């Protein structure tokens, strides 16, 4: 098969894996005149689509052949999709060629399972080893780890890759057993635990410690393939963050494919639901919310598609609003819908110089379309009915069309919430 045809098939097959962000890599460059690639300057650039997917990496599968028959996977054993397989040398050559042409800033490499987990993992590691040792490639490398592979191979992957990821796939053991009976959450979590231990040891050992996945590890959960609620998914995410110190969890809306199992939903990908989960994840990681607070605000178990999770929470806690931007704590300001972390930090710093007025908040970068209903300033108090269905309707209208995928050019994925 021609290389161009292989690339078309295996790049397309890799699109379902969302966990490819390039943040967190250490600074490396080829300034001394040796090697190729960089993770600084024109190296890894943080270019994301609105749903959080990184677009700066060569993102391919080593092969889309697979011995597993996971029902939610388009590359499962029983699928009739066209198959292709790269040689190790072909992935290495493509990475170097694309980097030299400034098409990419790094490599994200995953694979279907061929022969065995160890056989496949050996080839993933070999790609990274050749790039690092023989071609002195200093760019970003993310390897998808196969949880059933031996600990020695996973350890080798961590020596060459900037980031490793092990996909948890589904938020519950029952769902994984039903849809991917050849996989177990035990092996997945064991691999995650081994990676965490190695990452922690490398960090604690300082500069003299052997290098191991300096950008940490990530994972992915599929949304909408099973009956799990948003509350189930966020609870699992919180457990994974705390237990394995993940850098990030990615949520991937299940997309139906040709000849899929009748046990899977046959409807459009739940893109807005995916978006709400990203927003909730952001609130937990950067805004001081607990999972219990967020899930208590959604008795149905699923986030409101009309309102972002912070606004949903605020409407259920009207007794805490409005807050005075001149006196409220940073923690409380972070709970105001529409105020992001940067805007809150600017507000806290600027109010030391004098009382803030409504116009000052705009100058400081605060988005007041939602926030104006929940704040008080030196010259401003919210008007009208501050509770009930009317305010909910106004805020839902401020969020734009419901259940529509954001346009690529409408803004970044991680905006103020």
Sequence-ordered SSE layout with sheet pairings:
Elements: H1 3-13, E1 57-61, H2 88-100, E2 106-110, H3 117-134, E3 140-144, H4 151-160, E4 163-165, H5 173-179, H6 185-204, E5 217-223, H7 230-244, E6 248-253, H8 271-286, H9 291-296, H10 309-315, E7 323-324, H11 330-333, H12 341-350, H13 358-363, H14 368-371, E8 375-376, H15 388-398
Helix pairs in contact: 2-3, 3-4, 4-6, 7-8
Question: Could you walk me through the main structural features you see in this protein, from its secondary elements to its overall organization?
Answer:
The chain is an alpha/beta fold. The chain has 2 domains: 3-269, TIM Barrel; 288-417, no CATH class. It contains 15 helices and 8 strands. The chain has helices spanning 3-13, 88-100, 117-134, 151-160, 173-179, 185-204, 230-244, 271-286, 291-296, 309-315, 330-333, 341-350, 358-363, 368-371, 388-398, and strands at 57-61, 106-110, 140-144, 163-165, 217-223, 248-253, 323-324, 375-376. It has a 6-stranded parallel β-sheet with strand order 1-2-3-4-5-6. Strand 2, helix 3 (117-134) and strand 3 (140-144) form a beta-alpha-beta unit. Helix 3 packs parallel to helix 4, helix 4 crosses helix 6 (185-204) and helix 7 (230-244) packs across helix 8 (271-286).
